[in-house]
Specification:
Length: 390
C-alpha cells in the first residue's frame, strides 16, 4: 500500500473508533451527572457492544503482532522493523488504548445498569459480579501489551535521535518516498512520548559511575546518552570500562610482546578521528557497562554510530571473576569472567590504573536482588484513562 492509501484507511478506522468512544463517553458523563443509570442513557449505546469488542480485538491483535515480531528480531533487523513500521505502531498503540478505555467505560455503564436491576432480578446481580471480575483482567492484559510495545518503540526512537544526523531523517528507506514520509523520528517521539511516560517513566541520564576504566580525558557522555535507553527500570550503572577482549580470532599465534602493543593501542584508537579499518580489526576495544543486574557489551564504534549492542550477560550467570595484574613487556592486566554462556577474557592497556581494574572486578562480583512491582488492573485503568485524556 502507498503511504497515502494507508493514511486514508487509518483515518477511516480512527473516525469509526472515535465515534464509538464519544458516544460511550457521553453516556458515562450523563450517568455521573444523574447519579443513576436510566434506559434513556443506556439504549443509545447498547447496540455498540459488538463493535467496541471488534475494535478492541482488532487493535489488540495488531499490537500483539508487533510485539511478537519484535521478539523474534534482534540488533539491526529489530531497528529496521521499528523504523519501517513506526507510524503503524504509533497508530495501533493509541487505537488499542482508546478502544480499551471505551470498552472499560461501556462495561462500567453496563455493570451499573445490572446493579440497579439486581434489586428485583438475581441474574442481574450475577451479571454484575461477572463484569466486575472479568473486565479488570482484560484491561491488565491489554495494558501489558501496550507497555511492552511502547517501551520498545520509544527506546529505539530515542536511540536513533541520539545518533549523529538521524534525529530529523524521515523514517523511510527509499529516497523517492522521503517527501511523502508522514512522520520523522522527532515527530514520532512527540506523538508517543506522553503515552510512554505515562505507562513507563523515561529513564534518567545515568551518572558517571565511580568505577571507570577508560583513557584519561575520554568523554563518556555520548556513551551514557545511548546506554540509558537500554537500562531497565530501576537498573543502576556501577562501572564502565574499555578492555581488549581476547578470543581465538585475535589471540592465537600472537607473541606476548606484540599482543601487549596491540592492547595498548586500543585506547589510542578511542580518540576522535583515529578509527580506521586496520584499527577496528587489530586494536578495537570493547565497551563494557556493568550494572547491578547485567554485563552489557558493545563495539564502541557501532554503539555510537548505530546504537547497536553486543552480547549481554546476567550477573546471575557469573560463576567466577579472576584478575591477573602482573605487568611487564609482554604481559598486561587481565580479568577473566566465567559465565554460564561463555568465558570472557579482558586485557587492559599499560596505562590503565590498577585500582580502576579492581573496581571493575568488584562490580562484576556483586549482585543486588531485584524488586519488581507491577501496577494492578485498577491502577492500569486509571493510567489508561489519564493517558487518553492527555
Amino acid at each position: 500500500m502507498t503511504p497515502q492509501t494507508l493514511k486514508a484507511i487509518r483515518n477511516e478506522q480512527w473516525a469509526e473508533l472515535e465515534g464509538l468512544a464519544e458516544s460511550v463517553d457521553e453516556a458515562v458523563k450523563e450517568t455521573r451527572e444523574l447519579d443513576a443509570i436510566t434506559d434513556s442513557v443506556w439504549e443509545p449505546i447498547a447496540p455498540s457492544g459488538p463493535n467496541i469488542r471488534k475494535q478492541l480485538k482488532l487493535y489488540r491483535k495488531n499490537v500483539a503482532d508487533h510485539v511478537q515480531e519484535l521478539g523474534k528480531l534482534d540488533g539491526r533487523a529489530r531497528r529496521q522493523y521499528l523504523e519501517s513500521n513506526a507510524e503503524a505502531i504509533v497508530f495501533d498503540t493509541y487505537a488499542l488504548l482508546s478502544s480499551l478505555k471505551t470498552h472499560a467505560e461501556y462495561q462500567a455503564v453496563r455493570a451499573a445498569l445490572a446493579r440497579t436491576r439486581s434489586t428485583n432480578d438475581e441474574s442481574e446481580a450475577q451479571l454484575f459480579d461477572r463484569i466486575a471480575r472479568n473486565t479488570p483482567v482484560e484491561i491488565d492484559e491489554s495494558l501489558s501489551e501496550i507497555r511492552s510495545l511502547t517501551e520498545s518503540l520509544v527506546r529505539e526512537l530515542r536511540i536513533i535521535a541520539e545518533l549523529p544526523g538521524r534525529a530529523t531523517v524521515p523514517l523511510t528507506k527509499k529516497g523517492k518516498d522521503a517527501k511523502a514520509s508522514q512522520l520523522t523520528c522527532r515527530q514520532l517521539l512527540e506523538a508517543i512520548d506522553p503515552l510512554a511516560n505515562m505507562l513507563q517513566p523515561a529513564v534518567e541520564m545515568p551518572a558517571v559511575p565511580a568505577a571507570v576504566c577508560a583513557p584519561e580525558g575520554l568523554e563518556l557522555d555520548p556513551y551514557l546518552h545511548i546506554l540509558r535507553w537500554f537500562l531497565e527500570d530501576g537498573e543502576t550503572l556501577r562501572s564502565v570500562a574499555f578492555p581488549y577482549e581476547m578470543g581465538t580470532h585475535n589471540f592465537a599465534g600472537v607473541v606476548p610482546a606484540i599482543l601487549a602493543r596491540r592492547v595498548d593501542a586500543t585506547w589510542d584508537a578511542l580518540a576522535p578521528g583515529r578509527a580506521s579499518a586496520i584499527v577496528e580489526k587489530f586494536a578495537s576495544s570493547t565497551f563494557v557497562a556493568v550494572t547491578d543486574r547485567r554485563i552489557v557489551t558493545a563495539n564502541p564504534g557501532n554503539f555510537l554510530k548505530r546504537g547497536e549492542l553486543g552480547p549481554i550477560y546476567s550477573l546471575d550467570d557469573v560463576r567466577n571473576v579472576r584478575g591477573r595484574s602482573h605487568r611487564g613487556a609482554g604481559v598486561r592486566p587481565t580479568i577473566d569472567v566465567a559465565t554460564e554462556e561463555r568465558d570472557l577474557h579482558w586485557m587492559f592497556p599499560d596505562a590503565a590504573e590498577h585500582e580502576d581494574i579492581e573496581s571493575l572486578a568488584a562490580a562484576l562480583s556483586e549482585r543486588t536482588p531485584r524488586a519488581v512491582s507491577a501496577p494492578t488492573a485498577i491502577e492500569g485503568l486509571a493510567t489508561a484513562d489519564s493517558a487518553i485524556d492527555a
